[in-house]
Design a protein that fits this description.
Keywords: ATP-binding, Cell cycle, Cell division, Nucleotide-binding. The structure is a single chain. By secondary structure, this protein is of the alpha/beta class. It folds into two domains: 4-13 and 218-344, Rossmann fold (3-Layer(aba) Sandwich), CATH 3.40.50; 32-213, Rossmann fold (3-Layer(aba) Sandwich), CATH 3.40.50. Helix content is 40%, strand content 13%. The protein is built from 14 helices and nine strands.
Length: 349
């Protein structure tokens, strides 16, 4: 007999400002990493160089640059030398998130760690001015998977990072797109050169070379089970685990009514997700919301047992080859890993 918790489609978490900010920290996958646990590949010297650059950058965190008369009169000290931000550029699978989390763990004081979309969602939940007010009190803001997907995000993040930098907050980011090239292929980047340049000016770029996992292709999605056997399969494989059973259509419909900044709390405590009758998503807005859910499920290592379409058919071919292709490929890769964990017992890496 499968003991289940409330379906995701019936969860509408109420999230306070403190709850949102508490979630801005590395996931369990990177909760104990350090610069020492990062093993640079000798074939790619830039990896070791990135470690040393981040170690040096960490010593500047907490030293406000400028800060006005009161800061100078009452212990502000000399302004920190060097850029107010550092940006790790490189392909997938070279350890950029490991390094960014190591920076987070290496410093003390108030700091935040989240994906690009988590910060845009934070602004959506709190308002821009409140977000600036709250994060200006932090010594370090880490932005993982930095990517601009539309003109609105460009302007929003340009203003946010400029104001945080002016307040003396240190910034660190990862991406596989150089700051000056953000937005290419998604919108008319040439029309927003000023905003993109403002972003680029915040960071010193550190290149991290290495093998790109995309060259190895996506892992093969496990064959879906039949809807009738899902619950029995999950009960046998995951006895005693916190399990949620839901219909894919109900979940996707519910996502449109819950702000993405609350998805982390929506899946809180879930070990296994049993998802019935997965279908291909053909609406862009819903697809992007499902990408956020996939990231949160992956962060929490929620095993998935599913019927219907395999996850490599979750998005249309047009989506997988369009402007958001990196987001969709990441989501497919992560959901497939969680499905292989749920149905084949593999560890989701």
């Amino acid at each position: 007999m499968l003991s289940t918790a409330a379906p995701l489609s019936e969860r509408t978490p109420q999230v306070s400002v403190d709850d949102l900010l508490e979630g801005l920290k590395p996931s369990f996958r990177f909760s104990e990493v350090s610069f020492d646990s990062y093993i640079p590949d000798p074939a790619h010297p830039s990896q070791a160089e990135a470690v040393e650059a981040l170690r040096a950058f960490s010593t500047t965190v907490g030293r406000k640059r400028g800060g006005g008369l009161m800061n100078r009169l009452f212990g502000g000290g000399k302004p920190a030398a060097g850029p107010n931000g550092i940006y790790l550029d490189g392909g997938f699978g070279v350890g950029k998130t490991h390094l960014l989390a190591s920076l987070y763990h290496s410093v003390e004081g108030k700091r935040a760690f989240g994906t690009f979309v988590e910060y845009t969602n934070l602004v959506g939940a709190l308002t821009f001015r409140k977000t600036v007010e709250v994060l200006s009190d932090y010594s370090l803001v880490c932005i993982d998977e930095f990517e601009l997907d539309d003109a609105g995000d460009t302007t929003l993040m340009s203003r946010l990072l400029r104001e945080l930098s002016d307040a003396g907050v240190k910034l660190a980011a990862t991406s596989n797109t150089l700051p000056g090239s953000l937005g290419e292929g998604r919108f008319a980047a040439s029309d927003f050169k000023r905003e993109i340049q403002v972003l680029a000016d915040q960071f010193k770029v550190i290149r991290v070379d290495g093998e790109d996992y995309r060259h190895r292709g996506l892992p093969e999605a496990p064959p879906p089970l039949s809807s009738d056997e899902l619950e029995g399969f999950a009960a046998e494989r995951f006895p005693g685990k916190e399990t949620v059973v839901d219909d894919f259509a109900a979940v996707t419909d519910h996502l449109s009514r819950v702000h993405p900044s609350r998805y982390r709390q929506m899946i809180a405590g879930v070990d296994v997700l049993v998802l019935k009758d997965v279908e291909t998503i053909d609406a862009q807005a819903l697809a992007l919301r499902f990408v956020v859910l996939a990231d949160r499920l992956y962060d929490q290592d929620v095993a998935i047992v599913a019927s219907g379409q395999p996850f490599d058919k979750l998005f249309t071919e047009e989506m997988m080859n369009g402007g958001y292709m990196k987001k969709y490929n990441r989501a497919v890769s992560r959901l497939t890993a969680l499905a292989r964990s749920g149905q084949m017992g593999e560890e989701a890496l």
